[in-house]
Amino acid sequence: MQRWRRERNIAIALMVPALIASIFVGHLSEMLLFVVSYLYASQTVNVNRLERWLSQGGQGEKPDFKGIWSDIYYHFYKIRKSQKRRKKKLGKMLDSFRKSTGALPDAVVVLGSYGEIEWSNKVAHDFLGLKKSDNGQRIPNLVRHPLFIQYLKEQDYRHKICIPSPVNENMFLQIGIVPYGSGLRLLMAQDITHQKNIERMRTDFVANVSHELRTPLTVLRGYLETLQEMDGAPGVYSRSFQNMAAQTERMQALIDDLLLLARLESKPKKSESVLVAALLSEVCQESDLLENDERRVELHLASSANLLGDASELRSAFSNLLVNALKYSPATSPVKVSWRDAADGGAYLEVEDFGPGIPAVDIPRITERFYRVDVKRNQKIVGTGLGLAIVKHVLVRHDAKLDIDSQLGRGSRFRCVFPKQRIC
Ligand code: ADP
């Protein structure tokens, strides 16, 4: 306000003498024109100086000026200084971010909205074979693994993927992506070779032990059968033989399930066309034959969809669900099996029984290996605790999921939901 007053006073100081002079010598308009031209010219010079200073990026000391122009320069100067300070602070933050991500044992890559690399740390160069000069390039052009390309395309980052490193096929990387900001994505890759090796050792160990146990068990079963068939075996032994036969049978089932699980973990996936209606009819018929009494299985084929996958794996999954439904429900109650189209273009298999149901706390755990609900209640029902683990594994290998719905005293419903891309 003060500065404006100064400008106004200068204008008045020039106008008043011009007016007085015009009273004596006339030429009022010329006098006023002269004063206005002078004021206009001096402001133009100042505007010009400001424009030149700004066009040079406001570098250097602010030009020395008087009045309102001094204020204008000063404000610009202050804004530029605070911008400089902010830039310095941001630079420092960026530097410490780079240093901390550089110290991370995991690979970190910042991706733009088109998948172009904006920045990557040193570990990303070692794990993914990226170079500094790759900045700006789209990552699917550099990391070509089909699973990774599909992961980027689908943009479903709730889960992580595991792929071999593009620079070392013996190294396994777990890759996860976190979207942030406007269209930016943070890719993180962790070396999980060690875990993978331990996992492989465990699978191999279980598979080898199960395989090695098979032969002695077959021999034992053979001798037991012979002993049971022998005439004249003392009656006191016959119960023991029966028990031994039941236990060897249980052990056989355990070994078979363990071998199947090991195979599911290691063998490559198959993708053949599986005729679901025929497969289900067979599975239901076989299960029904095992039941002594009336037919209990009600099969409802509401969909003509077939699946892309492995027929023998699907057969074991479906049959495990059906055997469970029959096993864990009264011998007089029906078991409903249906194959239906899903609203999203996929299809689902539903196995429903009217048994005692499963307590809600156990539902999240029943697909774990060896997990059995209320062992006391079920102790008469023979099982390995591996059936649902097999079901889950088979479904994961078919990109499908298992939904379990159960109400105590009413029954359980197991649903295998297959996605659209698995339908043929
Ligand atoms: P198991 O060989 O013991 O049947 P599973 O892995 O197939 O092993 O099942 C795990 C547990 O889940 C079972 O022990 C049982 O307690 C429970 N379960 C599975 N299916 C049903 C069902 N249809 N109704 C009630 N309980 C079930």
TrEMBL record:
Example of a GO MF term: kinase activity
Catalytic activity: ATP + protein L-histidine = ADP + protein N-phospho-L-histidine
Subcellular location: Cell membrane
UniProt keyword terms in alphabetical order: ATP-binding, Cell membrane, Kinase, Membrane, Nucleotide-binding, Phosphoprotein, Transferase, Transmembrane, Transmembrane helix, Transport, Two-component regulatory system
Pfam families assigned: HATPase_c (PF02518), HisKA (PF00512), PhoR (PF11808)
Superkingdom of origin: Bacteria
Record carries keyword Kinase: yes
Histidine kinase domain segment(s): 208-422
EC number in record: 2.7.13.3
Protein's name in the database: histidine kinase
The species this protein was found in: Methylomonas aurea
Source taxonomy: Bacteria, Pseudomonadati, Pseudomonadota, Gammaproteobacteria, Methylococcales
Gene coding for it: phoR
